Amino acid sequence: MDEKIYDVAIVGSGPAGYSASVYASRYNLSNVVFGKLPGGTISEAHKVCNYLGFEEITGFELSQKFFNHAKSFGAEMQIKSVVDIKREGDIFKIHTESKNIFESRSIILATGTKRKKLAIPDEDKYIGKGVSYCATCDSNFFKEKIVAVVGGSNAATTAALLLSEVATSVYIIYRKEVLRGDQKWVEAVLKNKKIKVIYNTLVTGLSGNDKLKEITLNTEFNGEKLLKVDGLFIEIGSEPNGDLPLRLDLETDEVGYIRTEEDQSTNIEGIWAAGDMTTNSNRFQQVVTATSEGAIAANSVYEYLKT
Amino acid sequence: MDEKIYDVAIVGSGPAGYSASVYASRYNLSNVVFGKLPGGTISEAHKVCNYLGFEEITGFELSQKFFNHAKSFGAEMQIKSVVDIKREGDIFKIHTESKNIFESRSIILATGTKRKKLAIPDEDKYIGKGVSYCATCDSNFFKEKIVAVVGGSNAATTAALLLSEVATSVYIIYRKEVLRGDQKWVEAVLKNKKIKVIYNTLVTGLSGNDKLKEITLNTEFNGEKLLKVDGLFIEIGSEPNGDLPLRLDLETDEVGYIRTEEDQSTNIEGIWAAGDMTTNSNRFQQVVTATSEGAIAANSVYEYLKT
After folding, report:
1. Is A63 in a helix, a strand, or coil?
2. I need a labelling partner for A272 at 20 to 30 A (CA). Which of A120, B19, B76, B306 fits?
3. Which residue of chain B is at minimal alpha-carbon distance from A296?
4. Do B101 and B246 fall into the same domain?
5. Which of residues 129-148 of B touch A (CB under 8 A)?
6. Which of A234, A263, A278 is the last residue of a domain?
């Protein structure tokens, strides 16, 4: 049990959490940032090209810069997950996976989102044996292999482009008839001779033995419903991470995004939320929108604690 | 007369404008960015420490990175001011100070705000050498120094409170006899032992050599018209730049900030606004909030033009 009471505990170590921490530190608020994966999901991005100031940088490098910025400004870094938060009077008690308890006067929740699953039979069974949710992490296991990517937005097109650098061929399987997201990525995909897009199609089954060998489509492609692949990358979007919003009785929308006011406050006094897991920023989930929400949340916490 | 019709004309060359441009380019929207001062007001910041990813960078350097990012991604840069925008059917005609006319299908207005100045001799000379218009940006440069804040509303009281955390003493110099704005801030100021409020007083002069050393008051304080300070924070408010909102019949609040929806749209179809001149981001005017609003605006323009 750490006896220190922090001004603000920032739960989540992505762009929103680190930006909140930088602002909190600038306001002289003692702060601790919790998160098992420094940088959050952006750390797994192959390349980031749209965070103003960095024309092209790997997600890993950008995450390191964010981490270092927050740390050097005074954040205490706890590279661990938070499993529960309980209020006792004016103090929040933050319970980590390693059974430590930290205390703080306020909370900024910024635990982001996680990749959605296809929810088809045997999906979990093949994770790490052909099924992946992170092309940046796993593409190199598919050198000179055949892979498929499920999805049609930026996550899918960028994953396919990355995979095309190592695999012999890449299918994109998309339920709609036109790819969406950045047109630069869409054009690059359509020009790439290794990539074949299969439109208006769903993946409904997985088969193999130790490893994935074939996927089943809901409609024929080249006269076959079975498609031979060594890897399947599922890039169909995301949903809020974890059950802390539920545990904290936070108001969410129907799919679990935390309802936040313009100052990033939630329905619970003393708790703010920022980043991809909120309903703010026109629901545009980007590094720039997350850093903005984190900064606004820290400013709101500062105003709250000073009065 | 340039015959090209741009998808989007971005009026304003600060963080909001450049971020909008980067996103527009990623969506393959042809775009032109207008602005006489690349980087906008941030280019004049002595140091920027709160834009996540850069622990300490001059405003000038950061502005250059922003400019280069937008330019390398495809923005056409027009280093000139826009004096008028007129709609003709579906097309906007953008008139520049140099009498050129550019055409575009949509507009993102991001011309920012300007800090109100005291308008006293040598004010410009001491900017970055003691005179500042942004306590959030610059307070940490005044650790264990003596500073003064000019103003009496929220901007001034919050600046003084923030400065009191690092400076040895803080004067608030205000022309009226009672501080205004949120009473919670006023109370916090009056309780703070480091802060001394000098009422019914104006700052009329600045002196020093390389750096600010003293300010002149219009009336004696402790028997002296000269007051020794290391920093002077001028917090008498800011106001939106230029008269384009008025010319375009945009809806604003009572002091001229453009009313924007969550997608950065304005009351006029085809015109979006982003950055410090809008009512969004909880009115927290920062580089991170501006880049976020610019990205959201570009995304909204993309959705508008493709449908």
Report:
1. helix
2. B19
3. B284
4. yes
5. 136, 139-140
6. A234
Q: What distance in Å separates the CA atoms of residue B92 and residue A259, rounded to the nearest whole number?
A: 37
Nearest chain B residue to A263 by CA: give it: B282
Same domain membership, residue B264 and residue B243: yes
Q: What is the pLDDT of residues A199-252, one digit of tens each?
A: 999 999 999 999 999 999 999 999 999 999 999 999 998 899 999 999 999 999
Residue A227 domain flag:
yes
Residues A221 and A246 in one domain: no
For CA atoms B64, B66, B72, B75, the dihedral sign is: negative
| Residue B234, helix vs strand vs coil | strand
Q: Which chain B residue shows the shortest CA-CA distance from A15?
A: B52
Q: Which of B52, B187, B294 sits opposite A19 (nearest CB)?
A: B52
Q: B-contacting residues of A 140-199, CB under 8 Å?
A: 182-184, 187
Residues A45 and A78 in one domain: yes
Find the closest chain A residue to B62 by CA distance. Answer: A53
- 8-state DSSP, B257: P
Q: Cβ contacts of residue A266 below 8 Å, gap of 6+?
A: A109, A250, A251, A258, A259, A260, A272, A273
The verdict on A266 and A222 lying in the same domain is no
pLDDT of residue B307: 65
CATH of residue A218's domain is: 3.50.50.60
Residue to mutate among A13, A281, A288, with most B CBs inside 10 A, is: A288
Domain encompassing residue B49:
5-114+239-306
Q: What percentage of chain A has pLDDT greater than the value 90? A: 86
Length of chain A: 307
Q: Judge whether A296 is closer than 8 Å to chain B, CB to CB.
A: yes
Question: Is residue A28 a contact partner of residue B161, using CB atoms and an 8 Å limit?
Answer: no
Identify which of B253, B298, B294, B302 has the alpha carbon closest to the alpha carbon of residue B42.
B294
| Closest CB from B136, B291, B296 relative to A282 | B296
Flag whether residue B219 sits within 8 Å of chain A, measured between CB atoms.
Answer: no
Contact A179, A189 (CB under 8 A): yes
- A61 with A40, same domain: the answer is yes
Q: Which of A211, A234, A257 is the last residue of a domain?
A: A234
Count of other CB atoms within 10 angstroms of residue B3: 5
Q: Tokens representing A18?
A: 């680190």
pLDDT digits (tens, 9 = 90+) for B248-275: 999 999 989 999 999 999 999 999 999 9
Q: Please give the Cα distance from A3 to A286 (Å, whole number).
A: 36
Closest CA–CA distance from residue B30 to any residue of chain A (Å)? 12
Q: Do A53 and B54 touch (CB under 8 A)?
A: yes
In a domain, B120, yes or no: no
The structure's pTM equals 0.84
What does the alpha-carbon distance between residue B258 and residue A123 come to, in Å, rounded to a whole number?
Answer: 49
Is A14 found in the same domain as A104?
yes
Tell whether A281 is within 8 A of chain B (Cβ): yes
- Regarding whether B102 and B135 lie in a shared domain, the answer is no
Q: Is A246 on the interface with B (CB under 8 A)?
A: no
How many domains is chain A partitioned into structurally? 2
Q: Is residue B192 part of a domain?
A: yes
